[in-house]
Amino acid sequence: MINNQELIGYVAAALTTGSFLPQAVMTIKTKDTSSLSLGMYTLFTLGVLCWLIYGILIFNWVIIIANAVTLLLAACILSFKIYNTFISKP
Amino acid sequence: MINNQELIGYVAAALTTGSFLPQAVMTIKTKDTSSLSLGMYTLFTLGVLCWLIYGILIFNWVIIIANAVTLLLAACILSFKIYNTFISKP
Question: Count of CB atoms within 10 A of residue A63's CB?
Fold first, then answer.
């Protein structure tokens, strides 16, 4: 049985991780990253990587799974931003 | 004394929370939200609110402070996106 505290933790993790899916889909579809902050996605991707390492160190599966998925989505968005900023010349 | 596990947890929290500052500053300065996903910021802001409630329930100050700051920044970005999508007609 999970209690109410755990439940709200799982809902929180599902929402914050899941939220990057519509952004990743939108970025892949439109390839537009003009109003996305490079600083944000750089710091955020590094932060999520740290959360993943933290989850592995304390062996917490919720933290591991949530952050592995978020890392994938955030790294995808960051790749588009880096490509548009430094490689593609419009 | 904090151990290495706790340290990486604090670094992770500082990075993921701090990452929303450059995005908020960029959004406030440019007012451009064209490539930001409304779905992402709606889900994310709700998720961070749940994390804040979770932090209060388990009385964990790191979770409370990190998510209170992130909530403020995410809600600010979401407000601009809602204004540009539903209120302002360019």
Answer: 20
Q: A61-84, pLDDT tens digit by residue?
A: 888 999 999 999 999 999 999 999
Minimum-distance CB partner of A46 among B15, B26, B41: B15
For residues A70 and B6, give the distance between their C-alpha atoms in angstroms, rounded to a whole number: 21
Q: Domain map of chain A by residue range?
A: 4-87
The third-level CATH classification (topology) of the domain covering A4-87 is Monooxygenase (1.20.1280)
ipTM summary value = 0.86
* Chain A: closest CA distance from residue B74 (Å): 11
User: Which of B16, B27, B54 has its CB closest to that of A44?
Assistant: B16
Within 13 Å and on the Cβ side, how many CA atoms surround A89? 0
- The model's pLDDT over B32-77, given as tens digits with 9 standing for 90+, comes to 999 999 999 999 999 999 999 998 998 888 889 999 999 999 999 9
Contact check, Cβ <8 Å, B4/A57:
yes
